[in-house]
Design a protein that fits this description.
The structure holds 2 protein chains of 2 kinds. By secondary structure, chain A is mainly alpha-helical. Chain A has one domain (2-28, 42-265): MetI-like (MetI-like fold). Chain A contains 12 helices and no strands. Chain A is elongated, with a radius of gyration of 22 Å. Chain B is α/β, with parallel strands linked by helices. Chain B has 10 helices and 12 strands. Chain B has helices spanning 49-57, 84-90, 112-123, 128-141, 147-150, 160-172, 190-207, 218-224, 242-247, 252-259, and strands at residues 7-18, 21-33, 38-42, 65-74, 77-78, 95-98, 178-182, 210-215, 227-232, 235-241, 309-312, 315-317. An 8-stranded mixed β-sheet of chain B has the order 6-7-8-3-9-10-12-11, sandwiched between helices. Chain B has a 4-stranded antiparallel β-sheet with strand order 2-1-4-5. The longest helix of chain B is centred in the middle third of the chain and has 18 residues, at 190-207. The two termini of chain B are 29 Å apart. Classes of the chains: A mainly alpha, B alpha/beta. The interface between A and B is medium-sized, with 18 and 29 residues.
Chain lengths: 266, 328
């Protein structure tokens, strides 16, 4: 529940960014540099080294983080599900596909993402693709595991006995019964994607500097961490709030969707 | 067997590949089913009766299972040689199947109406509304009260007996000529078992289909089947009309099975049991597979596989002493 509230808060910031932001997140005002956060509509979160409004930058950064997270989740729910379902259902493809997934998962994930992002050149799309390549094997694994369980159930056999083809069995009889672990997994992947996007941006491999990003903000503020610590603390808190909210939400979803845990709790 | 058989299984051999090598679960099994007939296949767990049914349907888990030999002729066509897509069209429309576990044989995320109409629409080009009408008709046929309302129920809203009725409705929705029923009543209460068997009997007469019913319950066979095949360790031990098999079993295994079933007429003596257990399929005895447990064993039993002999018209037994008549 708390997770849902926290995540909804971040989503609201992103959706209403144009109303919340006092001004253009990229407008510089040299005379207004390094204003600390104060109780003020405009200067609530202060300004940065170029006098840009931190509140504006944070809410616009939320847009980018959530869009990238959403993109990664969407690509995962298409390709991760497809690959996982195929690997779990057609047993002959399982071995080769899972070994490939193992190989991808053997790389440290952030290193792989950096490699792909560097190869494709920095942009928001690059970040989405790089992070998807990193997380799709994980999603595929989860989906494959549930498909392996569901495919042995009698109603699948019954569907086969009534003449249903492979595609129909996968899409109508197997996948709908694999949704619970998938939804939980996707909520965690969303969290990882937000975090990893910040890392990529921090390293200059994410969105270009013209788009406000939490990772870029931390990277730029790092130089002034002694004099103007809010430049790193504020975006850091934004990342922490989003990731924590998503993780708590994932835990909550798991409790709701996984009947086994419910029994254990009483 | 004057009529042309609907289903003719010839020398079927089904093997499972395992770490210890191939295991023959069904070994040289042959039987015929004529249109409108009920054949019971009875045997212990592991005797190969379910594997026989799955082989006919082409639903063996592959790998490890595969049909290693024989023919399965359905209306004269060998199902084993049909292309996959054609075999798929046969399933559900020409051959239906119902399973043992009604609690798990329905997909929990769809209504029963969705599932019945799905079967119909896989096989026939009809619209959703027409399929729904057919679905309601089928539910009515299998004795589900107020089917107009029930069709929108989810499986968890139905009892086990109701779900088995729904399974039957699904299996019969395209009027198959042959229904394979794999232990359709085993998981149900005794009173519900009788209802389901009566229902199957009525529908079988009404629709004129043939049924192969697989069970380990001699009572179900006595009540339901016209002919019975007794399987033991992957082979058919004895096959014949139900009346004859029950009155005058010639194979010692059949006799043993019957004397281990309580009889409602007269004093109930202590039930006999068959000593020993089913042999492991890895280490089958060389001759008659029942020989190690058989009270009437002679030396010749271990020499080689006993030939199947016709004791009386339509009554076959695979026992070298069958003609002596078995008194268990």
């Amino acid at each position: 529940m708390i997770g849902l509230v926290m995540f909804s808060f971040v989503v609201a910031l992103a959706v209403f960014a144009w109303w919340i932001a006092p001004n253009d997140p990229n407008r510089t005002a040299i005379r207004m540099r390094f204003r600390p956060p104060q109780l003020d509509r405009v200067l609530l979160l202060g300004t940065d080294n170029l006098g840009r409004n931190m509140l504006s930058r944070i809410v616009h950064g939320a847009q980018l983080s959530l869009l990238i997270g959403l993109g990664v989740v969407l690509l995962n729910s298409v390709f991760g599900v497809l690959l996982g379902a195929v690997a779990g259902y057609f047993r002959k493809l399982d071995g080769p596909m899972m070994r490939l997934a193992d190989a991808l998962m053997a790389f440290p994930s952030i290193l792989l993402a950096i490699g792909i992002a560097a190869a494709l050149g920095p942009s928001a799309w690059t970040a989405v693709i790089a992070l998807s390549v990193v997380y799709i094997p994980r999603t595929a694994r989860i989906v494959r595991a549930s498909v392996l369980v569901v495919r042995e159930m009698e109603f699948v056999q019954a569907a086969r006995a009534s003449g249903a083809g492979h595609w129909r069995i996968i899409s109508r009889h197997i996948m709908p019964n694999c949704m619970a672990p998938l939804i939980v997994q996707l909520s965690f992947i969303f969290a990882y994607a937000v975090l990893s996007e910040a890392v990529l941006s921090f390293l200059g491999l994410g969105a270009p500097p013209s788009i406000p990003s939490w990772g870029t903000m931390i990277s730029e503020g790092r130089t002034y961490i002694r004099e103007a610590s809010w430049l790193t603390i504020v975006p850091g808190c934004a990342i922490a709030l989003t990731v924590l909210g998503l993780n708590l939400m994932g835990d909550g979803l798991r409790d709701v969707l996984d009947p086994r845990l419910k029994i254990e709790q009483g | 067997m004057a009529a042309q058989p609907l289903l003719s299984v010839r020398n079927l051999r089904t093997v499972f590949g395992t770490m210890q090598g191939d295991v023959t679960a069904v070994d040289d099994v042959s039987f015929d089913v004529v249109p409108g007939e009920v054949l019971g296949i009875v045997g212990e767990s592991g005797s190969g009766k379910s594997v026989t049914a799955l082989s006919i349907m082409g639903l063996l888990p592959q790998p490890p299972g595969r049909v290693a030999g024989g023919e399965i002729l359905f209306e004269g066509r060998d199902l084993l040689k049909l292309p996959k897509s054609e075999m798929r069209r046969m399933r559900g429309s020409a051959i239906g199947m119902i399973f043992q576990e009604p609690m798990t044989s329905l997909n929990p995320v769809f209504t029963i109406g969705d599932q019945i109409t799905e079967t119909i629409r896989v096989h026939e080009r009809i619209g959703a509304a027409a399929a729904r009408v057919r679905g309601i008709e089928m539910l009515e046929k299998v004795g589900i009260p107020s089917p107009q309302r029930r069709i929108d129920d989810f499986p968890h809203q139905l009892s086990g007996g109701m779900r088995q009725r729904v399974m039957i409705a699904m299996a019969l929705s395209c009027s198959p000529k042959l229904l394979l029923a794999d232990e359709p009543t085993t998981a149900l209460d005794v009173t519900i078992q009788a209802q389901i068997l009566d229902l199957l009997r009525d529908l079988q007469r009404e629709m004129g289909m043939a049924i192969v019913i697989i069970t380990h319950n001699m009572g179900v066979i006595a009540e339901f089947a016209d002919r019975v095949a007794v399987m033991y360790a992957g082979r058919i031990a004895e096959e014949g009309p139900v009346g004859r098999i029950f009155d005058a079993p010639t194979h010692p295994y059949t006799a043993g099975l019957l004397s281990s079933t309580p009889d409602l007429i007269g004093e109930v003596p202590r039930l006999r049991t068959i000593p020993g257990t089913l042999p492991s399929l890895y280490e089958l005895p060389p001759g008659c597979r029942f020989a190690p447990r058989c009270g009437r064993r002679v030396e010749a039993c271990e020499a080689g596989r006993p030939a199947t002999q016709e004791i009386a018209p339509g009554h076959f037994a695979a026992c070298i002493r069958a003609r002596e008549g078995a008194s268990a």
